[in-house]
Structure formats: structure tokens, C-alpha cells
Amino acid sequence: xxxxxxxxxxxxxxxxxxxxxxxxxxxxxxxxxxxxxxxxxxxxxxxxxxxxxxxxxxxxxxxxxxxxxxxxxxxxxxxxxxxxxxxxxxxxxxxxxxxxxxxxxxxxxxxxxxxxxxxxxxxxxxxxxxxxxxxxx
Length: 137
Prior knowledge:
Elements: H1 20-40, E1 62-67, E2 73-75, E3 78-80, H2 82-93, E4 100-105, H3 111-124, E5 129-131
Helix pairs in contact: 2-3
């Protein structure tokens, strides 16, 4: 037998591994995987819809309030009174999303008129208020 060590006097002992059974097992496994993989990955072709992950933002409208040098208030080109300003601002505050209010004050208008319009915007509950100015040259 080839199992013996130093107990046998046979010098023809086998010192390497027989690769034939290992190759046979590997070929059988390869054939099994070649046959099984197409069965496992078989699927039905479906034309899936495309998804878009951009946020649909509803841009709020912008209301331009201009205050002339004499203190008159203009709502997007229309002259209005202080009482009408408060009514319109209250109506705009109830909209979703709320509009942005841009105040354009004349260079020579008194500060009191601008503060009055700002207070009206705050009383109405509008959250976005901005000032428009011209950059220096």
C-alpha cells in the first residue's frame, strides 16, 4: 500500500496528489452551473416607466410694491391706498404658497412711508419680504 511511512521497505511510495478525481468533480460542477444559471436568471422583459427625482417646486408669484417720492403706493403698476393695501396683503397671505413681496422705495421717499408698508406686510402675515435697489456704479 502507498499509505505507509517508514514501516514499509517499499521505495515506490506515491508522493504526489492524484488530480483526476479533483478534475472530474470540477467538470461536473461546471456543467451543473452552465445548465442552472440560465434557468435562474430567466426573467420577463417589462418596459418600466422612467422616474424623475427633481422636486416640483411651485414658484410663488412676486408682488412689487413701489413707494413714490410723494408717498403713493403702487401695487404692480396700480396706485392703491393704505386701506386697499392691507386688504390685498391679507388676501395674498392666505394663498399657498405665499407670494414674495418686493418693496421698491424711491430715493427721496420719507422713511416713515417705507416703514408703514413694511408694517402692513407684517400685519398681514406674509413671511417673504425683500428690498429692491440699484447697484452703485
